[in-house]
Amino acid sequence: MARRSSTFDSVGEYIADRRRSAELTLRQLAELTGVSNPYLSQIERGLRRPSAEVLQQLAKALRVSAESLYVRAGILDPEDHPTSTVETAVLADGSLSERHKQVLLDVYRSFVAEDAASLPDPAPEPARDTSAG
Q1: What is the pLDDT of residue 63?
Q2: Nearest to residue 3, comparing CAs of 35, 47, 38?
Q3: Residue 84 DSSP symbol
Q4: pTM score > 0.85 for this model?
Q5: Mean pLDDT confidence for 42-46
Q6: Cβ–Cβ under 8 Å, residues 71 and 10
Q7: Residue range 81-108, pLDDT digits in tens
Q8: What pLDDT is attached to residue 128?
Q9: Where are the chain's structural domains?
Q10: Where on the phi/psi map is residue 122: left (φ > 0), alpha (ψ -120 to 50), or beta?
Q11: Rounded-to-integer distance, Cα 33 and Cα 60, Å
Q12: What residues have CB less than 8 Å from 7, skipping those under 6 apart?
């Protein structure tokens, strides 16, 4: 029997958890994503490695960021693509409509970008005198 990767167990467990939180059956999620029911079951159990395209479809259906699934699946480096807890919370909130989620995320991202743009550039290091003297 082939050994399962803990990375894939993690993404599969996360997908299963998000699916249950969204109160979707495996069959409903399969229909929303266009992924077969058996294949989706294997992903959730960590038996199959989902492609980036499948992860993107799942992210959209589960209202989570595709990047967070890519990081969990080992496709992206978590240090290069940190996930925002604010974005995750907004996307996970079932009381918000899709339109409201998008508006909140747009406002949040504009504030983050504005703050990043207002940070001063790091000062260059002073030149070191290498002459003997």
Answers
A1: 85
A2: 47
A3: P
A4: no
A5: 93
A6: no
A7: 555 677 767 766 778 777 787 788 778 8
A8: 62
A9: 1-82, 84-118
A10: beta
A11: 8
A12: 72, 73, 74
Record the tokens describing residue 56, joined without a space.
């993107």
Identity of residue 94? G
- State both tokens at 80: 């290069």
Show the tokens assigned to 126: 């002073």
Residue 97 — φ and ψ, nearest 5°? -75, 165
Angle at alpha carbon of residue 57, lines to 34 and 37, rounded to 5°: 40
pLDDT tens for 114-125 read 887 777 665 555
Q: CATH says 1-82 is which class?
A: mainly alpha
Q: And the tokens for 60?
A: 């959209």
Amino acid at 64: V
For residue 115, give both structure tokens: 């703050």
Which pair of structure tokens corresponds to residue 2? 């082939």
Structure tokens at 89: 């919370």
Helix axes 6-21 and 37-44, enclosed angle (nearest 10): 120
Write the DSSP string, 3-51: PPPHHHHHHHHHHHHHHHHTT--HHHHHHHHT--HHHHHHHHTTSS---
Give SS3 for 61: helix
